[in-house]
Every structure is written in C-alpha cells, then in structure tokens.
Amino acid sequence: MERMGRVSAMLGFSFLLIMASAPFVFADSVPLQDFCVADLNNTVRVNGYVCKDPAEVTAEDFFFSGLHNPQVPTTPIGSVATHVNVKQVGGLNTQGLAMVRIDYGPYGQNAPHYHPRGSEIIVVLEGTLLVGFITSNPENRLLSKVLNKGDAFVFPQGLIHFQFNMGNTPAAAMASLNSQSPGTVTVGNAVFASNPAIPVTVLDRAFHVDKKTVELIQSKF
C-alpha cells in the first residue's frame, strides 16, 4: 500500500508538471511563416492584417526611408513624430516591431501619453531631453531622468510618459516599440477632447475644479 501511495503521488506530481508546461508546449509564440506582409486594402477583419500573396511581395514591403531627415514641429506642443509602423511598412505585420523619430522644437515636448499595446525604448539623437514615466495607482511615482545625446530610456507598456526638450535649440530622438501597432493615447486629448465629450460634471469632480475651468480647458482642444 505504501508503494502504491508513492506511485500515485509521483503520477499526480507528473500530471501537474505536464499541465503547468502545456501552454508553453502547445502555444505558438512566433510567426508560422517567413513573413506576412500586410494587405492594407483587404476588408477582412482580423487581429492584425491579412497577408499579401507572397508571390507579390517585394523588398519595398520591408523598406522605409527618411528617418535621418529632421522635421520642423508645427504643433502647439512643439514636437512632430515620423512613424514607422505596419501602416508605413507592411512587412512589419506579425513581427512585433515599430519605430518612431521624434523632433522637438526649442522647449518643445511630447505631451503625456501612453501606448496600450507596447513598451518603448528611446535614444536621444540631438539635444537634451527631460523624460519620465509615472507608475500606476496608488503610488503614482514619477521616475524621471535628464538624457543627453546617446542616452537611452525605457517606458514600460501602458504607463503615462513624456519627453521635454530642455534647450533653446531643436532636439531629436529615435524610439523603438515592441508592437507593430502600439497605439497612442494622449492624456489631455483623451480626457478633454473625447467625442462625444465626457460630461463636465464628471470632470470637475475628478479634477477638483469648477465647471468653468473644465469648459475653459475643453475649449483649448
């Protein structure tokens, strides 16, 4: 009986090991083909994009040019982004990668925002940037750093972050994200410029201000 008990215990332990490892054994974590170039004209709805016929794929589907060219910011916040995601490079489909070049005017900023589907690493090309991100509730701790040319910084997925050009001359940075379509939610736009608008009675209580202040901020967007 004792021996049967040990055998039963060993079988039970083995079963638990198999069940624990099953997701790793049977799940595919990498693409099942060489590539899946996005067919942006296909109307089929999938999580990503339908693959273009491999016979029609060319080197141009994996190519992007111009990241070395500075852009002049014309936005009120003083920055402009040159995106390289699946919309610009169809070959990024299923590869889990995206890039962006950000150009900042003097004292320009990339306003507080977050990426719901990707983490980010940024490298300063020119200038000096103040960067940082905020941890989640309840700490809401700011982790911030001043970066110079050649410095890098990581923004974890889903956390609000920002960049600010500390100089009176243009600055630039290059960022990489681990999603072909990381998405961007700019906090100010999302809160004060949603369509339809969030009711003023919700926002005035959330931000501890009066209704006129909320309406004034909304008018700026």
Could you please describe the fold and organization of this structure?
Helix content is 22%, strand content 25%. The chain contains 4 helices and 10 strands, in the order αββββββββββααα. The strands form 2 sheets. The protein has a 5-stranded antiparallel beta sheet, with no helix packed on it. It has a 5-stranded antiparallel beta sheet with strand order 6-5-8-3-10. β5 and β6 form a beta hairpin. The longest helix is centred in the first third of the chain and has 25 residues, at 2-26. It is globular and about 60 Å long.
The Cα radius of gyration reads 24 Å
Strand order of the largest sheet: 1-2-9-4-7
Q: Which stretches are poorly predicted, pLDDT < 50 over at least 5 residues? A: 15-27
Number of helices: 4
- β content, as a range? 25-35%
**N- and C-termini, Cα separation:** 77 Å
N-to-C series of helices and strands: HEEEEEEEEEEHHH
User: Major sheet, described briefly?
Assistant: 5 strands, antiparallel
Q: Looking at the structure, what is the overall shape?
A: globular
Count of distinct strands: 10
Average residue-wise pLDDT: 90
Helical residue percent? 10-25%
Q: Class by helix and strand content?
A: alpha+beta
